[in-house]
Design brief:
The protein is of the alpha/beta class and 259 residues long. The protein folds into two domains: 6-199, 2-enoyl-CoA Hydratase, Chain A, domain 1 (Alpha-Beta Complex), CATH 3.90.226.10; 203-249, Orthogonal Bundle (Lyase 2-enoyl-coa Hydratase, Chain  A, domain 2), CATH 1.10.12. The chain contains eleven helices and ten strands. Strands 1-2-3-5-7-10 form a six-stranded mixed β-sheet, sandwiched between helices. The structure holds octanoyl-coenzyme A. Octanoyl-coenzyme A binds at residues 24-25, 27, 63-68, 70, 78, 81-82, 85, 106, 108-110, 132-133, 136, 140-142.
Length: 259
């Protein structure tokens, strides 16, 4: 599929996806969601060990879902649009490699929800987060009511969603919505630095850790502990585990093959 709104950069075993719709501050319309869905469906988790998602320009990550496209939707169309976005974001959340959101400006509504579907969020100092939907007569529809409370706690999530107020980068850091804040010029370098560290580790182990953390969220403590033990055991079937531990014992460094 040819992409009109996505720019893809191949950085060895790291991939950078840039959402690019400058006229609307990278707001997500159906065409962009379709392209993202196609991109994620064909994403090569054997070649890439980390995905970075960012927005084009220095002003906006993603300024939400496209309001002009939503303005005249009826109930059924609204549901379809919402579930289409939610499905794309779920693909990000369950992708078999870690996804870093490099939030380079506005992350409002669907933009904040996109960032939350990623494993890790870092942002530039001009970033602004928020769920302003109730000011438009809707609620967060790309899983924001689900993920925000899980990330920052129910009380703060309810405040942000009910008031629709924007959160600056320093507050986003304080409430745990992002892991780190950098000057705009350093953001992508820092994202690459983190991705490079992730990519140097055993990819099957990183994937297993991601799936464990995701899957165990909804389990009882006993189920989760059992699940972790099982997956931990599976790691010992991999060459990466044998080579990684042998390298440590020989005071060397392992180039993990993902086998
Ligand atoms: N949708 C469509 N167009 C947008 C959007 C958007 N979300 N955001 C910005 N734009 C457009 C503006 O209309 C403007 O277009 P034009 O130049 O043609 O007038 C252009 O981008 C530049 O924007 P501004 O002139 O407004 O730039 P400012 O710097 O003054 O303001 C803001 C930047 C603060 C980001 C402002 O544009 C804004 O508030 N945007 C809307 C933010 C918002 O409310 N986002 C949430 C949308 S709702 C949502 O995301 C729901 C997700 C779930 C959907 C479920 C579906 C059922």
């Amino acid at each position: 599929m040819e992409y009109n709104f996505l720019k893809i950069a191949d950085e060895g075993n790291i991939c950078i996806l840039t959402i690019s719709a400058p006229k609307t501050l990278n707001a997500l319309n159906s065409a962009i969601l379709k392209e993202m869905d196609d991109f994620l469906t064909h994403f090569d988790c054997n070649k890439y060990r980390c995905l970075i998602i960012t927005g084009d320009g220095e002003k906006s990550f993603v300024a939400g879902a496209d309001i002009s496209e939503m303005a005249n939707l009826n109930m059924l169309q609204g549901q379809t649009f919402g579930s289409r976005g939610a499905a794309v974001f779920r693909k990000i959340e369950t992708l078999h490699v870690p996804v870093i959101a490099a939030v380079n400006g506005f992350a409002l509504g669907g933009g904040c929800e996109l960032a939350m579907a990623c494993d890790i969020r870092i942002c530039s100092d001009n970033a602004r987060f928020g769920q302003p939907e109730v000011g438009l007569g809707i609620i967060p529809g790309f899983s924001g009511t689900v993920r925000l409370a899980r990330l920052i706690g129910m009380g703060m999530a309810k405040e942000l969603i009910y008031t629709g107020r924007n959160v600056k980068a320093d507050e986003a850091l304080r409430i745990g919505l992002v892991n780190a804040v950098y000057p705009q010029a350093e953001l992508m370098g820092k994202a690459m630095e983190m991705a490079t560290k992730i990519a140097a580790n055993a990819p099957l182990a990183v994937k297993a850790a991601k799936l464990c953390i995701n899957d165990e969220w909804d389990m009882t403590a006993d189920e989760a502990i059992m699940n972790e033990s099982t997956v931990f055991g599976h790691c010992f079937q991999t060459e990466d585990q044998k080579n990684g531990m042998a390298a440590f014992l020989n005071k060397g460094k392992c180039e993990f093959q993902g086998k």
